[in-house]
Amino acid sequence: MIVFQLNNKEYGIAVGKVRSIEKMQTITRVPGTDSFVKGVMNLRGIVTPVIDLRTRFGLVQEELSESSRIIVAALDSYEVGFIVDSANDVIDLAPEEREPAPEVAGAEEAEYIVGVAKSGKRLIILLDLNKVLADTSHSPASNKRNVQHA
């Protein structure tokens, strides 16, 4: 799992989905996209949409810092970048360390959680990146389309 931080919580995504972890770079805003779609970046000649996970999860915005990163992940037939507070950990999780997602009322990110992992004293929230991109307020495919064509 690639572990990253967001709002002082640790999240994990499968290492097999991650293409790279990049320092912050110039992001060009694209009109007409959802507010959590920050725009696109030119990553080694490939135009890649960038999602701000703080905005997507309804968290308070903070200034980007030296530790802010863009995690570039492969989803279906395209790549997308996710802005996170920091990302600097790769861990192996045994199956017994994983549990299904708990029922959490009122947590904005709850619908994107596929499970949790306990590793030592750490609690890592496991995300389903396809659900992060799914649109909950419009037609089912519109967000994905906006991200893919951003």
Description:
With 150 residues, the protein is mainly beta. The protein is 11% helix and 43% strand. The protein contains three helices and eleven strands, in the order βββββαββββββαα. It has helices spanning 53-56, 129-133, 142-148; strands at 2-6, 9-13, 18-23, 37-43, 46-52, 69-75, 78-84, 86-90, 98-100, 113-119, 122-127. The strands form two sheets. The chain has a six-stranded mixed β-sheet with strand order 8-1-2-11-10-9. It is globular, with a radius of gyration of 15 Å. It starts with a strand and ends with a helix. 30% of the residues are buried. Residues 136-146 have low confidence and may be disordered.
Oligomer: single chain
Number of helices: 3
CA radius of gyration is 15 Å
Name the structural class. Answer: mainly beta
Question: Low-confidence parts lasting 5 or more residues at pLDDT below 50?
Answer: 136-146
Number of strands: 11
- N-to-C SSE string, H for helix and E for strand: EEEEEHEEEEEEHH
Categorize the overall geometry: globular
Could you tell me how far the N terminus lies from the C terminus, measured between alpha carbons in angstroms? 28 Å
Helix content: 10-25%
The biggest beta sheet reads: 6 strands, mixed
Q: Beta-sheet strand percentage?
A: 35-45%
Going across the biggest sheet, name each strand in turn: 8-1-2-11-10-9
| Mean pLDDT over the full residue set | 83
List the helices and strands and how they pair.
Blueprint: E1 2-6, E2 9-13, E3 18-23, E4 37-43, E5 46-52, H1 53-56, E6 69-75, E7 78-84, E8 86-90, E9 98-100, E10 113-119, E11 122-127, H2 129-133, H3 142-148
Parallel strand pairs: 2-11, 5-7
Antiparallel strand pairs: 1-2, 1-8, 3-6, 4-5, 6-7, 9-10, 10-11
